[in-house]
Amino acid sequence: MKTLLIDIETAPAKAYIWDLKTRYVPLGQIAEDGYMLCFAAGWLGEDHVYFSSRWDHGEKGMVQSAWELLNEADAVIHYNGNNFDIPRLNTEFLKYRLGPPKPSHQIDLYRVVNGKFRVLSKSLKHMLSILGLENKLEHKGMALWTGVMEGNKEDQRIMEEYNLRDISTLEPFYRELLPWIDNHPNMGLWMPEGEKPLCTHCGSTDLRFKGYKHTKVLSYKQYQCNSCLSWSRERYADNTGRNRRHDILA
To answer: pTM, whole model, 2 decimals?
Structure first.
């Protein structure tokens, strides 16, 4: 399975406001719409990281590069990408009439954090800190974005480093969350013929039998992966397990 990690950076919109407490800005007060600045991406398990920006490759070249990578991917890993990165990229693809890239499984790690854990902050920075992993690059805040938008070369260099760091932190974070991800793509579907990995999350055959998973009418042998700690079950019901359950109920 070809799995892409991706993260984009965008410029904020510019607007005319009357005071600092403005909560709603009418469309007529927007002076300039937001736009995509750059993106970084890499294939899971590989060291090389791709980077493309509007200042080095032009807006169209940057968008085309992102489309080509997404079009190769079977699955895409991101943080809050379902709400931000992917819709923003789709907007750029629509603008340049590229059409949608090949459909892929979306693995949004923010949704895993939001649905599984209770933490003071659901930011990627805070989650990485909790786990003691390499963290996001520190920077000067909004001044970095304005510097990039104004063409400051040093700020553009720092933005590239910041964007690339996000990808390098995303992979180890994904591996920590792997056993917690519901509806993860079944890795076994992409394995070479003749191999029979049972772990649906990582494809490992290093599993230990952990009893039965019971539904209302059937029982399935279930396993825990020794490699990633994910849980999986066999596809077909086990008559032994089902009869055992009936004996208990009787």
So the answer is: 0.84
